[in-house]
Amino acid sequence: VVACLIIVLALVWTMPEIPKTVKTGEICLPSEIGPLKCGSTADLLHGYLEREIATKYDEVKRQDQEKQENHLKKVSARLMNIYDKSFWEMKPAAKLTGKEQPDLRKGDISADMVPIREWCNGRELYDTKGFMRYGIRYRNGRLVVPVDGTYFIYSNLDFFESCNPSSGLPDVKDINKPIKHGIFKFNILEGEEEELVTNVQPHTIPTNRYYNSYNSYVSSLVELKAGDELSVKVSNITY
Question: Across 43-172, where does the E strand assignment appear?
Answer without folding.
Answer: 93-95, 114-115, 131-133, 137-139, 142-144, 149-162
